[in-house]
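To: structure desk
From: M.T.
Subject: fold request, one chain
Message: Could you run this one when you get a chance? Sequence is below, nothing fancy, just the single chain.
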Amino acid sequence: MIENEPGVLVDSKIFPHVPSEFARRNLFYAHVGGSYHCAPPYRVQRDYLESFIIFLITDGLFAVEYRDEQLEARPGQIVLLDCKYPQAYWMIKTGRFKWFHFSGNASQAYLDLVYSGRGMVIDIADPNRIDQMIDEILQMMAQDLVDEHHASSLIHQIFAEILSQQTGSRSISDPVIQGAIQFIDSHRSESISLEQIAASVNLSPYYFLRLFKKHMDATPHEYLTQARLKQAMHLLRQTRLSLDAIAERCGFNSATHFIRSFRQHLNMTPGQYRQLKF
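Reply: Done. Structure tokens follow.
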């Protein structure tokens, strides 16, 4: 039994890692992880920790309380938590799970994106793939031979796997989303609001916003801006229209607004893009 952790059975393992300064500044990194075999009364409760944690449940029944929700997690499901929020998790039924605490790079942004679309308990179509990636991270930590660049890549791949299943690679198979996109595309030269887009598919703005983000990995406003910029990029390369004319045709309030948005998203001005040789 691991000391000070009641309910953690004797075949459980825990592996620490001290990340380099380069990893802390630039990479995703795991700093402790393990493979646990647990039984009641295993329970962890904390108010705050500057870290994130991922669990892959492989056996038994796991429960978690987080951000005013209490849910159960079963084999093949992932639990993903931001430990800066109060949380508790425990075993309802004896089982096993793999886990690691991680941080760095875009951890916060990725976790927030996953949570907004899937919540804290996540169904995975192919848990074996994520199981293999977690195993590889844990094995490096167990051998004290962590290739931090590869470990960072694996954590990134885990998020990519979760999000590809969440968004269906920006799938627009849902007829509501199809209708919303058609409305946006046909009105992108106009000033349109979230309320107008939601009304076009007979949904409340709040519910529509959540549904759109789940399917498109972007808000309606972000999608609209992307659509306007793609049209502008085409016009810049294929026509001699002035920036004022392109801004008006693509739905920007002014040439100044167009230039600012173009620079923000593409790191260059429309004029610089127009002169680029490919």
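Reply (cont.): The beta strands are 13-16, 29-38, 43-46, 52-66, 69-73, 77-82, 87-103, 121-123. Let me know if you need anything else for the meeting.
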